């Protein structure tokens, strides 16, 4: 693993912010490394999240480790999401990093007859049926993940002298079946997870995207029992950071973002083939969203919401530091909520809040309160000591889009560079062949 929990250097180039930049405010926890396990169901928006997490992994090798990634049923069958996951690892040439890839949950904890695959949003294969990004390599897959294996992987981090104070972050951007089953089988997992970051749910008056009354959200709808197992658990609720539709419906990939995305980071050059493929993915996703039956209800005519991608923001904030000025602050607005979800009936997956007088908070307002109690203040969501589920309602979206675009610009440049190196190698081999062949011919003649 090569862990070093005191070093904050990184190999970033292409203007990705450094964790030691002067615009950042660091606290004592900033030297800790994050160890991430991602359970996802790619999924167009899961794919974009993967690009961002893998790019962070490349940029901050001393601060970020990916313990593993599992593919769950959800946007498509587990067979399809696993293919899509290995395709993404393959396309992004991450095979050399030896990331543990697993197949995950295949069906909900309790049979849910209403469950379906949203082919209208994610295409038949779960990834807009896009040929350019469809290059599965199942050799990357280490088989089915078990609770025993996950416990072993987490214990490996927490029992190592060098990494025992680091943080384990479990991210879930599909149905929550896998981790819910695992904490029942191995309750010790709860202690080992520092934060559980998810995309899911819809609260209060925001319109949902599932059930006959549109009062639920898809990830919870797929397995509402799993959601209750996790968010009603007294330990897990103090670790859960939830990105519901209330915030993801504000992350719209609109024409302005599309224009920035379509431009090359190398002013005089075309965008790389890889970036073109992702542009196609987003355009198709956009088309599927805006032409879907949900559009009338959601009015996504400006572009698709980037649901899962937002779960990367607490990680980015932790690695880069929360800026001092308003522009570079994440400015989270959240509530701390106790809730449960309906597990059957025509409002299956609807959330019911128990907390009385839950009010919108920011890290700043919480710090002011804490200061009067002499409790250490925190500059980021991952270090925030919560009492109930943190449910996000708003944030600085300009900062989100800045990181989003920066990631793809970097990918664009790297891809262009690797293609140029490949072309140069082909040219050199061809030149050498001509020389060698020339020499042989000279001898023969
Ligand atoms: Ca997803």
TrEMBL record:
Leader peptide range in chain numbering: none
**InterPro entries with a match to the protein in the record:** Inosine/uridine_hydrolase_dom, IUNH, Ribo_hydro-like
Protein family (similarity comment): Belongs to the IUNH family.
GO terms of molecular function: purine nucleosidase activity
In this chain, the stretch annotated as Disordered covers 1-28
What SUPFAM superfamilies does its record include? Nucleoside hydrolase (SSF53590)
* Source organism: Hanseniaspora valbyensis NRRL Y-1626
Q: What is this protein called?
A: Nucleoside hydrolase
Query: Mind telling me which residue stretches traverse the membrane in this protein?
Result: 421-441
């Amino acid at each position: 693993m090569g862990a070093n929990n005191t070093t904050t250097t990184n190999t970033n180039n292409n203007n990705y912010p450094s964790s030691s930049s002067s615009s950042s405010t660091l606290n004592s926890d900033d030297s800790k490394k994050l160890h991430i396990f991602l359970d996802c169901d790619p999924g167009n928006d899961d794919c974009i999240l993967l690009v961002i997490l893998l790019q962070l992994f490349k940029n901050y090798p001393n601060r970020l480790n990916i313990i593993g990634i599992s593919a769950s049923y959800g946007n498509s069958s587990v067979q399809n999401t696993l293919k899509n996951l290995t395709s993404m690892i393959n396309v992004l040439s991450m095979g050399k990093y030896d990331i543990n890839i697993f197949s995950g949950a295949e069906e909900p904890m309790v049979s849910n007859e209403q469950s379906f695959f949203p082919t209208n949003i994610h295409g038949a294969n779960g990834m807009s049926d896009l040929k350019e990004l469809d290059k599965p390599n199942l050799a990357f897959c280490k088989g089915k993940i078990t609770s025993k294996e996950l416990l072993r992987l987490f214990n490996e981090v927490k029992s190592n002298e060098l990494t025992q104070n680091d943080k384990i972050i479990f991210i879930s951007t599909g149905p929550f079946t896998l981790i819910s089953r695992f904490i029942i089988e191995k309750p010790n997992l709860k202690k080992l997870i520092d934060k559980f970051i998810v995309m899911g749910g819809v609260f209060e008056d925001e319109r949902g995207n599932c059930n006959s009354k549109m009062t639920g959200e898809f990830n919870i709808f797929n397995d509402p029992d799993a959601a209750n197992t996790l968010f009603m658990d007294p330990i897990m609720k103090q670790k859960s950071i939830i990105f519901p539709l209330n915030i993801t419906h504000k992350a719209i990939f609109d024409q302005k973002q599309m224009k920035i995305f379509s431009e090359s980071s190398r002013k005089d050059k075309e965008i790389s083939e890889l970036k073109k493929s992702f542009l196609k993915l987003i355009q198709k996703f956009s088309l599927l969203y805006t032409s879907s039956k949900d559009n009338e209800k959601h009015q996504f005519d400006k572009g698709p919401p980037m649901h899962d991608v937002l779960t990367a923001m607490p990680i980015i904030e932790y690695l880069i530091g929360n800026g001092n000025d308003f522009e570079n602050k994440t400015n989270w607005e959240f509530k701390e909520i106790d809730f449960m979800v309906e597990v059957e009936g025509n409002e299956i997956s609807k959330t019911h809040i128990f907390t009385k007088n839950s009010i919108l908070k920011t890290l700043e307002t919480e710090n002011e309160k804490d200061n009067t109690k002499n409790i250490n203040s925190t500059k980021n969501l991952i270090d925030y000591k919560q009492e109930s589920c943190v449910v996000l309602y708003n944030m600085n979206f300009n900062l989100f889009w800045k990181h989003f675009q920066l990631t793809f610009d970097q990918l664009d440049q790297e891809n262009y560079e690797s293609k140029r190196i490949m072309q140069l190698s082909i040219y050199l081999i061809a030149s050498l062949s001509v020389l060698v062949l020339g020499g042989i011919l000279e001898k023969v003649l």
